[in-house]
TrEMBL record:
Residue ranges, annotated region (Disordered): 172-205
Skewed-composition ranges (Basic and acidic residues): 178-191
UniProt organism field: Agromyces mariniharenae
InterPro entries: DUF1697
Top-level taxon: Bacteria
Signal peptide: none
Name of the molecule in the record: DUF1697 domain-containing protein
Amino acid sequence: MTRYIALLRGVNVGGITIRSADLRELVESLGFDEVRTVLASGNVAFDSERTDAAALKRDLERALGERFGYEAWIVLVTRDELERVIEAFPFDADDASRQPWVVFASEASALDDLLDTAGETDPDVDPIRRGDGVVYWNPVKGTTVDTPFAKVLAKARFKPTTTNRNLRTLAKLLGGRGRPEQRPGRPERDGAASASRPGPSRGLA
């Protein structure tokens, strides 16, 4: 049995609305076990005996498209792969003044194009680093729609090929199986709108 994590692109930010309960119900209906969603930005973990990740990804995308009526694409990784991505974060993940992000893409060339377009960035304002199949980004909290790299990431050419998640959201996806407990207090949201000042989550999906 393998633990998989699926990250849906563009959910609940660009006119595509998928409730976490509906996403969980769909994944359970496909026969997967221990299904768990995290936040409302399209994150779901589940257990499966299937080992062909590419075929599993295609089946999930087709099911999402049929159920919710959009052209779905997802990032699909195993728990072990996601754990390695998190552990390799090259900046101080505990710095409360920063928002640690991981950018995923439909293919490696999209990340190369993203970095080439961004060019050299200010390491104090826009620290970015290429990782294994990802780009790490650690902007100052409250600037995630304003920095030069944020504006590159928000360009229309990258919206169909990239999706990003806060490092803390990814860490939660490594947590326990099954439905998460409901905790009191203000719910946490993934995306740029969770920054210290309000604002739209342009390009951060």
